[in-house]
Amino acid sequence: MADEQTLDNQNPEANTATEAAGGEDLVTRVQTLEEQLAAAQDQSLRVAAELQNIRRRAEQDVEKAHKFALEKFANDLLPVVDSLERGLELSSAEDEAIKPVREGMELTLKLFHDTLKRYQLEAVDPHGAPFNPEHHQAMAMQESTHVEPGTVLKVFQKGYLLNGRLLRPAMVVVSKAPAEVPPSIDEQA
């Protein structure tokens, strides 16, 4: 050891060069470690943000699942409601022979409507309203001078919304402007 100290003392320029090289090496190493730390922190923030996004999407999916879980079941029940409504439309209220059956149908239909309302199923009956392609399906167009063009004249089948989302569009007849009659030959002369 004494020999090493003697050598170190004998060659001070070599010691300074070694220390300088070691210092530069340390500075480079510190710089590299700081860059790695910054990259790791950035990656950590990205992972945290991604987890937050996944959690938010999962919460939205659960909320949608709760809101629209009845969609298929409701779609299967709507033809029953349609049949009851059609049966009431086609039966006569004055016919004493079917009066009890008609009353039973009315009560059953009321029960259906109350149940649908309780589960946020809302009927779309646009008779007389402007045609809305987001909620209505035009089955035919009919000329009319009594209403504005693009107005619903007749509803073949009601539409339904489930929690504000279209479950089934209303099938409707839409008004259009009457066609202009070409001038007759007598008027042209």
What do you see in this structure?
The protein has 189 residues and is an alpha+beta fold. The protein has two domains: 25-64; 68-174, Head domain of nucleotide exchange factor GrpE (Nucleotide Exchange Factor Grpe, Chain A, domain 2), CATH 2.30.22.10. 58% of the residues lie in helices and 17% in strands. It contains five helices and six strands, in the order ααααββββββα. It has a three-stranded antiparallel beta sheet with strand order 1-4-5. Helix 3 (71-90) packs antiparallel against helix 4. The protein is elongated, with a radius of gyration of 40 Å. The termini are far apart. The mean pLDDT is 85.
Short description:
One of its GO terms (biological process) is protein folding. Residues 13-23 have a biased composition (Low complexity). The chain has 189 residues and is of the alpha+beta class.
